Amino acid sequence: xxxxxxxxxxxxxxxxxxxQLIRDQxxxxxxxxxxxxxRLEQEIDDLKRKxx
Length: 52
Known about the structure:
The structure is a single chain. The protein is mainly α. It is 96% helix and 0% strand. The radius of gyration is 23 Å and the shape is rod-shaped. The mean pLDDT is 97.
């Protein structure tokens, strides 16, 4: 029973670590996407200015 309890605890800890890793990766991906959008918006503005 003790081994089973330790196994469950280990699985729960790993599950928590994986969830945190996924959250961190998601935040990083969102940040990169936002930066890319800002660059594209700036490029659009620059192109509009050149066109006028």
